[in-house]
Structure formats: structure tokens, C-alpha cells
Amino acid sequence: MEIKNICCIGAGYVGGPTMAVIALKNPQLKITIVDANPDKIKAWNGPLENLPVYEPGLADVIQTTRGKNLFFSDDIDNAILKAEMIFMSVNTPTKTEGEGAGMASDLRYIEACARNIAKIATTDKIVIEKSTLPVRTAEKIKEILDLEGNGVHFEILSNPEFLAEGTAIQDLLEPDRVLIGGDETESGQESVSALVDIYANWIPKDKILTTNVWSSELSKLAANAMLAQRVSSINSLSALCEKTGANIDELSKAIGMDHRIGSHFLKASVGFGGSCFQKDILNLVYLCKYYGLDEVAEYWHQVVKINDYQKDRFAQKIIDHFGGDLTGKRIVILGWAFKANTNDSRESAAIYVAEKLFKAGATLEIYDPMVSKESILDDIQVYWKCSSEIVKDRIRILNKTSSIKESDAVAILTEWNEFKKIEFYKSKVFDGRNVLEESFYSIGKNK
Ligand code: NAD
Ligand code: UGA
């Protein structure tokens, strides 16, 4: 099948940057990104400085491709109808109700995509899982497509995305690998080749890995679990460092210089955040339990439990410093994003730490250079479940950091570069990212 038109359903942190780079490297293709949220589409078509996703380098790629071979549209049906290849890049959050609530992935958005494709398609299509999904989801998608479709042929591929936010463009331009899983049938392998050809326009062939569908689906969950496991491992050791006088940064360096271990993902922190690590590990835990592998489930669950412990431990340090009650204390929160160089705050450690401080009585002043005031207030409303009246009295969102001087304590929760340059009052800084040479409290250092 010759590929000329691509549709991507889901214009989020993955759909937007991923398709922009594919469009940049494949000027012969016409790519249309669609989304159920028309405001998001409007923003993608709007000024480059207000794109819905902040990523270094993204605006330049959008400027080069938008309106040429990359289009953003809310006409989902038309884009599906015209495309030979459809990427599904919708969100797959943790289920909040029903069987598997709090653990399993909520597949309602992916299933809605499949139903929509089945209803609209009048020609054969290659349907690609770009979202992160439980292993064997392709089976479910195929069932929907074949049962509800119009008799056309659908080939399902798994092509998980490994980009990290904050470095998405670099990760897409020079990925460690691209993974494509397909059926071992003739039509399956033809579809795999069609997708390989698209990536091969800028990625060396030896970095394009092809596997069966289930290995591809499961590799994505496994990769995130292994990465998060390293963070929880180093964070668990940070607690022991604080008891013994060992220094976690020295420990990370010493461990990471062993080439069998490697130096990445050994930075101790207040805890990992982001929309994926926790939800993907919980999904893995659920899958293991589903298959009766209780010991394996418990092993991976511990990675999330240590992360919760680390966030809690950090907040408790501050509360204990003030004798257990923060009433009347002004605390500045520096950083709301889950890591630097992104405007994304989903599952950010800051949300949990700030909540604990607030509920211990503190008045909070929150500053982040990229996360908007609306997003911060939205997070507070959604996660803390506090009335807006209480919030109004004791929370202020800052657009600069000038009030640090007058505060009782400062908590650094995101490793933004600009925090390294602020003139700090070291005696009151709790550094949750170890960005400062000196502070009152740093993770895994005992003074
Ligand atoms: P996102 O929430 O930023 O974007 C998803 C978009 O899909 C939303 O804009 C939503 O409106 C849209 N959508 C949902 N259902 C739809 C439907 N039926 N029709 C049309 N549009 C619909 O999510 P994201 O961060 O881009 O993540 C998407 C997937 O990619 C998830 O499975 C995630 O685990 C995975 N992933 C994310 C990252 C990351 O860094 N964020 C990296 C790798 C993989
Ligand atoms: C992560 C993976 O790195 C990507 O490969 C994957 O595609 C993505 O999840 C996904 O599936 O969504 P991301 O969550 O964007 O990417 O960012 P990371 O750089 O992995 O950081 C995750 C969290 O771990 C952040 O809060 C970060 O501050 C924290 N972290 C990371 C540490 O605390 N220490 C480290 O050494 C590394």
C-alpha cells in the first residue's frame, strides 16, 4: 500500500511533536493531526509562542511544517477517511472506576478511536498504536475494527513512543531506537515495511527494531518500569545516606561509573512525576496480577511505593523542622512542572508535597516559569479536592521569585536552571532536586 496521507488521532504531548518530526523528515507525506478538543486544535494553529505543548525546538519544527505538509484539524472523520495510515495517540490514564480502578489502564479513549475508525473507513487502513497500552490490546482493537467495520482490511501495528518531555524533539530526531511490532502474516509484514520506510528517512536502519506485536506493546511498559525503578532505587538509598553520612550524589557517581550500570537515571530527587511512570507501572502490576504473577506484581509495585515514600519524606522534613505545625508559616514552592523544560505538571511531585504542606497549615507561594497559573490552580482543585475559598486565602501564584526573602522556607521541587542562579537564603532552602551547592536540606545528604 502506498502511503500518502497520515492521520494522527490525539494532538497531545506525543501526537504533536511526533507527527511534526515525521512531517519534517517526510515532505512527501500529508499529515493531519486531529483531536476531540477543538480548543487544542485552535492553539496548535495559533501563535508559535502559545502552542499547547512547550518543548525546546518544537516551535521551529511547527513553523517549518505547518500548513505545508502538517495540518491540525477538528474534522476527525474526514482525516480518517482520507488516510492510509492512522496513528492512535490518545491518552491512556489509570482507570478511576470499575474493575481494575486505580491500577489498570483506562482504554476508553483508544476504544473510541477504534470505533470511530471502524465506522468511517471505506478503504483498507494501517492502524498504529502510538499510545502506551497493556500487552495484547491489539487483539481488542482488532475485534472492534473487524466487528464494527465496513468489511475493509485493518492491519494493526504497535509503535510505542519513547520520547521524554523536555527533550522530545532531540529524542525524536535521534532516537536510541524505534520499535515496530507487527503480525507475522504477509500483510502484517508489508505494513511493518511501510512504517519502517517512513522512519528510515532519517533514522539508521539498525536502530529500527521490528518485533511481534506483543513484544512491542510490553517493551514500552517494561522500559518505563526499568527507568522508574532506577529512580526509586537511588531515592531509597538517599534515605540511608541521610542516616549514615554517605552523600547520594557521590554514591550515584561511584555507582554510575560502572559501565554495566551506567550513569543515567541515578539522580536522587523528591520523587518522579509525569503522566506515565506511575500509570504504566500500575498497569504492569495489574497485568501481572491478572496473569496470577503476584510476586512479580509486588516487585514492581514497590517502585511506586518508594516514590510515594520519597515525596512524603521530603514534605515531612519541612513539617518536622517547624515542630509539626505550619500554621502561619510562609513557604515558597519553586517549580510545579514534573521536570525541567516542560509545561507539563501531570503527577508532579510538587502537587503532592505542596498539598501536605498546605494541609499542615502553611501559606504557599508557588512559582514555575512555564506552568500557567490556571494549570496550577486546576491541579490544586482536581488533586487536593479543596474548596476554592480555602485556596484563595492561603495560596498565591507568583510570576517572579522576589518574595523568597520574606518567607519562612523555600522548597525547590523542579530543577529549572534559573533556580540555580537565584540568590538564596541557604538556611531556609529545602532542595528537592539537589540543584544547589549548599542548602539547609538536600536529598540524601547529611550535614
Ligand atoms: P495527552 O493527554 O497530551 O494527549 C492526548 C489527546 O488525545 C488529548 O488532546 C485528547 O483530547 C485526545 N483524545 C482523546 N480521545 C480522543 C478521541 N477519541 N478522538 C480524538 N482525540 C482524542 O496525552 P500524551 O501525553 O500525548 O500521551 C498519549 C499517549 O502516549 C499515552 O498513552 C501516553 O502513555 C503515551 N506516551 C506519552 C509520553 C509523554 O511524554 N507524554 C511519552 C511516550 C508515550
Ligand atoms: C519518561 C521516559 O523517560 C520516556 O522514555 C517515556 O517515553 C515517557 O516517560 C513516557 O512514556 O511518557 P518523561 O516522564 O517525560 O519520560 O521524563 P523523564 O525524564 O523520564 O522523567 C520522569 C521523572 O523522573 C521526572 O519527574 C524526573 O524529574 C524524574 N527523574 C528522572 C529523577 O528524579 N531522577 C532521574 O535520574 C531521572
Helix content: 40-55%
| Beta fraction | 5-15%
How many β-strand stretches?
14
- Return Rg in Å: 23 Å
- Uncertain ranges: none
Largest sheet: 6 strands, parallel
- Principal-axes geometry comes out as globular
Which structural class matches the secondary elements? alpha/beta
What strand line-up does the widest sheet have? 3-2-1-4-5-6
Oligomeric composition of the shown chains: single chain
For the terminal residues, how far apart are their CA atoms? 65 Å
On the 0 to 100 scale, the average pLDDT is: 96
Please give the count of helices.
16
Ions, cofactors, ligands: which are bound?
nicotinamide-adenine-dinucleotide, uridine-5'-diphosphate-glucuronic acid
H/E topology pattern:
EHEHHEHEHEHEHEHEHHHHEHEHHEEHEE
Can you offer a commentary on this structure?
With 447 residues, the protein is of the alpha/beta class. It contains 16 helices and 14 strands. The strands form three sheets. It has a six-stranded parallel sheet, with helices on both faces. The chain has a six-stranded parallel sheet with strand order 11-10-9-12-13-14. A two-stranded parallel ribbon has the order 7-8. It starts with a strand and ends in a 5-residue tail after the last strand. The model has no long low-confidence stretch (mean pLDDT 96). Bound molecules: nicotinamide-adenine-dinucleotide and uridine-5'-diphosphate-glucuronic acid (UGA).
